[in-house]
Design goal:
The mean pLDDT is 92. The protein is elongated. It folds into 2 domains: 244 residues, no CATH class; 230 residues, Glycosidases (TIM Barrel), CATH 3.20.20.80. A 4-stranded parallel sheet has the order 3-4-7-14. The longest helix is centred in the N-terminal third of the chain and has 25 residues. It is α/β, with parallel strands linked by helices.
């Protein structure tokens, strides 16, 4: 993607983004695109004019389009097997406009869209063009930059980004227009590109001609008609289109259409047989800590452990016809979850019942022995205990996070450049640091990742928060990576462990099963 000198001066882009030719080639790096877009949006008054915000998906698509055009152009040159193609084009243009005028026009282009060494004033534009690379002067090597420049400026769908590659200053030179017209004439006289059945100068602008006002439609055209010879770019096209669709998606207006997967024929159905009690369950749900507090007040004594629940209370439930008691919040919870709630102004809050440290009965509730005691007494009255199991995620400082941080969906960098993690460490383990994104505390954002630092080796990863895809991420949870077989096996063994303790299991956020 061509970037003018004026745009570079205005936005102060990192020079590491640029190739020696002075172009930016993201090559599908979404993170680099987001860093680039952040620079653009920092120069815009988005508070008063939010419609001016630059979208990462559009810049990704724009860059992808220019890089694919360059790739197709190179394919065409390989097909021609004419290593002197640029020299032939240069000689043709020299004949049309004259040597000195062609040199001056090329110099003006280099000044307007400078290669790295020219932009950094390491060498002047005139000297740069006279420099040779593999016995070919840069003025010959860079002659095809006119093609890239023309393609971008002739595409109406790219008009929001013309400030990057606007050739208005070059058009003040009458020879520039002549050069563009002569390039067309030269390439129209050359053999067609076998993969499209057209000459190259007709092939490259074809998506823009078909869909002049839609970048998305142009990318879809490339995908539909050119994928078979695009190699890795075909995959990157899919990514680009997915990004555009994601940013175009309307949110907060209810769930989308439910798509029920069909697995018939993949395997035999082998469901466990329903025992006679299963369809007849009458379940009562109780938040464990809240219920124990209520019972303490009711019976006017401290009731803090599960085995201290009065038997007359169980008798009452049985008399009312309940056959199952669902105890919410049995497991050892995440200390970080409680800390986050406390820091946010709720000093009496407990940790979330679904942000777990480990699947062991909480010590505060009396541990497993107290639970088994209650289970036995309840079963004597025909009441089966039920508990939760959360296959989708764990707490952000869970036992698995400590022992297997690689079991979670993560990136080695923040997915969005605006994310900052400068708050206090939420981890109680001296070997690691856990930091949630700053704007969570100011309620400005609900970030999709938290920062995990291994203090032993310095490794930093940005782990995604748990999310069921319907709303905001849960900022005290960490998303398990089910692409890993060891994660799937660990979850299976955990489910078996829970099943041995609880006759009835309620799966929370169970879409990963």
């Amino acid at each position: 993607m061509k970037i003018s000198r004026n745009a570079r001066d205005k936005y102060k882009f990192d020079s590491a983004m640029f190739s020696e030719r002075g172009n930016i080639d993201f090559e599908g790096n979404v993170h680099a695109v987001r860093l680039f877009v952040e620079k653009l949006n920092q120069k815009r008054d988005l508070l008063n004019y939010p419609e001016l915000a630059v979208k990462s998906s559009e810049v990704y698509g724009l860059s992808l389009m220019t890089e694919i055009n360059e790739y197709i152009y190179d394919l065409y040159l390989e097909e021609l097997k004419t290593p002197t193609f640029n020299q032939e084009l240069y000689d043709f243009l020299e004949e049309k406009v004259g040597k000195s005028r062609l040199q001056e026009s090329t110099r003006l282009m280099i000044e307007e869209f400078p290669p790295e060494s020219v932009y950094k004033n390491i060498i002047g534009s005139k000297e740069f063009l006279e420099t040779q690379d593999s016995d070919i002067k840069n003025e010959v090597l860079f002659i095809d930059e006119f093609v890239s420049l023309w393609l971008s400026n002739a595409n109406p769908a790219l008009s929001p980004y013309f400030e990057f590659f606007d050739d208005e200053n070059l058009e003040k030179n009458p020879d520039y227009v002549t050069i563009i017209e002569s390039i067309h004439e030269f390439m129209e006289s050359k053999p067609i590109f076998s993969r499209t059945g057209k000459n190259i100068i007709a092939t490259l602008p074809e998506p823009a001609i078909k869909f002049p006002h839609s970048l998305k439609n142009q990318l879809e055209y490339m995908q539909e008609h050119w994928s078979e010879f695009l190699g890795k770019w075909a995959y990157l096209l899919l990514t680009g289109l997915d990004l555009i669709k994601e940013e175009e998606k309307m949110r907060f207006f209810g769930p989308g259409e439910i798509q029920v997967p069909d697995f018939y024929g993949l395997d035999f159905e082998n469901y466990s047989k329903d025992s006679d009690w299963m369809p007849k369950v009458v379940m009562l749900a109780k938040n464990s800590y809240v219920w124990l507090d209520q019972l303490s007040k009711k019976y006017k004594r401290s009731i803090s452990h599960l085995d201290e629940i009065p038997e007359e209370e169980l008798d009452q439930l049985a008399n009312w016809g309940f056959t199952s008691l669902w105890l919410i919040g049995l497991w050892e919870r995440s200390p970080a979850s409680k800390t986050i709630k406390n820091w946010c102004g709720n000093p009496e809050a407990e940790a979330s019942a679904y942000s777990l440290y480990d699947y062991m009965i909480a010590n505060d509730l009396g541990g497993e022995s107290a639970y088994n005691n209650l289970k036995q007494k309840a079963m004597q009255r025909g009441i089966r205990l039920a508990s939760d199991m959360v296959p989708n995620h764990t707490g952000i400082d869970s036992k698995w996070i400590r022992e297997h941080p690689d079991w979670y969906v993560s990136l080695p960098y923040p997915p969005f450049p605006s994310y900052q993690y400068s708050g206090h460490n939420l981890s109680s383990d001296s070997k690691m640091g856990i930091y949630i994104e700053d704007k969570y505390f100011t309620r400005q954002d609900a970030a999709v990742t938290f920062k995990h630092v291994n203090f032993q080796n310095g490794e930093t990863r940005y782990i995604y928060h748990g999310n069921d895809g319907t709303s905001m991420p849960w900022n005290d949870t960490a998303q398990l990576n089910y692409l890993l077989p060891e994660v799937r096996e660990a979850v299976i063994q955990t489910i078996i462990h829970v099943a041995k303790l609880s006759p009835i299991i309620r799966f929370d956020a169970a879409m990963t099963l």
